[in-house]
Amino acid sequence: MSSAAPLLEPADGKGGEAKRPCGCPPAWLRRLINTEEAWAQLQFAVPMVLTNMSYYGIPLVSVMFSGHLGDVHLAGATLGNSWATVTGYAFVTGMSGALETLCGQAYGARLYRMLGLYLQSSLIMSAVVSMVIAVLWLFTEPLLLCLRQEPEVSRAAAVFIRYQIPGLFAFSFLQCLIRYLQTQSIVLPLVVCSVVPFMLHIALNHLLVNVLGFGLIGASTAISITLWFSCLMLLGYVMQSKEFSETWKGFSADALNYVLPTLKLATPSAIMVCLEYWAFELLVLIAGLLPNSTVSTSLIAMCSSTEAIAYMITYGFSAAVSTRVSNEIGAGNVDMAKNAVAVTLKLSVFLAFSFILLLGFGHGLWARLFSGSKVIVAEFAAITPLLMISIVLDSAQGVLSGVARGCGWQHLAAMTNLVAFYFIGMPLAMLFAFKLNFYTTGLWSGLICGLTCQTSTLVVITARTKWSKIVDAMQQEKANYIA
Fold first, then answer.
1. Among 236, 259, 279, 405, which is least packed, fewest CB within 10 Å?
2. Residue 71, Cβ neighbours under 10 Å: how many?
3. pLDDT, tens digit, for every residue of 106-165?
4. Is 357 in the same domain as 228?
């Protein structure tokens, strides 16, 4: 298990050099990138990628099991899964981003008790928000019908959503716990508490859907059971482990004093995440209005799924840089924070280029995993160069968004996403697709314009940051803190 020491310190937390890979890297590599920092971030990022992929796979497995029940069940589960992500899971995931700022900076400043208080305040906030989302989910069927969805599919989607309501609360609590551990650079328990439930989830789906015959209800219930199992595993670890003796002092009424400060960061953090999620989902809906909508919708959905899978790699580095920057700001190390940003950007873009090389040579094989249609495979080949560009841009902005969370700039990132996607990206996508008749290529080109604007703005914000002012503000907060 990793210790509670941040990435800027070795495992024993006593200073000195961080653990480095065996052997000395070649001189050209050391000139290109800070190898010690890169190695530390890789050790952090890989477990975070595995954790994210496991949680991403839980509802996906239930959708797959639902698909074997019939076409309507598959369509309902797919629609329900998208609706749950857009209206619920994305929002609570974004809200937990406040802890990346608050807990990360508090840990770097050695205000250890504050981490437990911030965690509790975030759990309270998440419970309230989940109640509101749960009410919305109860009206899934009429809302989908208002959006002109097929009645039978809407009914199936509503069933798939309804039995996930208990799991929504578990998921929102999980996101808070993940950020609490992440900001202390404790990542291996996250892998265990996500991979083990994921494996059990497959068996649970088989039992409820195939053996006991609960169908769509069973597939949906399995999600809730798995998420609660994972949540209780992680909560049990936090409450029992001695690693958290300084940051977790038990439940306290003092946490109520930090609900509003947490909410002030959590709200723009949630908006920042949701605006980007919604843009991709909106693109799929717009594709349904194009000529030959069956092909165009499938193609844009394939591109969105491919982008999401590529982003999972970036997510690990986004979490790493968020933790590194917030820890270093809390500790007052401006140069270390800047170095962490530079190293993470290089690593993320390098891995994005590796991914697009594989995509460039294997796009035909990849497309055939989604569809056996020769038309769709050919169309995917034509749009692949644009998809490559968007993946590189998404990788860069993902890291810069992590920097924003580490510094507490969620409001700036939220405004950036609003302008980039909804004032630039989406209008241009519709212009290219409908007026200039570029169709699916036009839609994705518009998205690239939005991503370019988003990434460029975040680069400018990061480059023009007065790091010393952020550190001074943190030191002032530290001076006013009473344990």
1. 236
2. 10
3. 998 889 999 999 999 999 999 999 999 999 999 999 998 898 788 888 899 999 999 999
4. no
Cα separation of 440 and 447, whole Å?
11
Diameter over CA atoms, the chain: 67
Residues 319 and 226 in one domain: no
Domain count, the chain: 2
Same-domain check for residues 241 and 326: no
312 neighbors 56 (Cβ within 8 angstroms): yes
Domain membership of residue 80 as a residue range: 46-251
Examine the domain organization and report whether 215 and 364 are in the same domain.
no
What's 139's DSSP letter? T
Q: List all residues 6 or more positions away from 350 whose beta carbon is below 8 Å from its beta carbon.
A: none
- Which H helix or E strand runs over 169? helix 165-182
Contact 442, 472 (CB under 8 A): no
pTM: 0.86
Nearest to 406 by CA among 51, 107, 189: 107
* CA atoms of 359 and 379, how far apart (whole Å): 14
Tokens coding 215: 């169908």
Nearest to 95 by CA among 121, 74, 75: 121
Query: Are residues 345 and 374 located together in one domain of the fold?
Result: yes
Q: What is the DSSP letter of 242?
A: G
Please say whether the beta carbons of 112 and 275 come within 8 A.
no
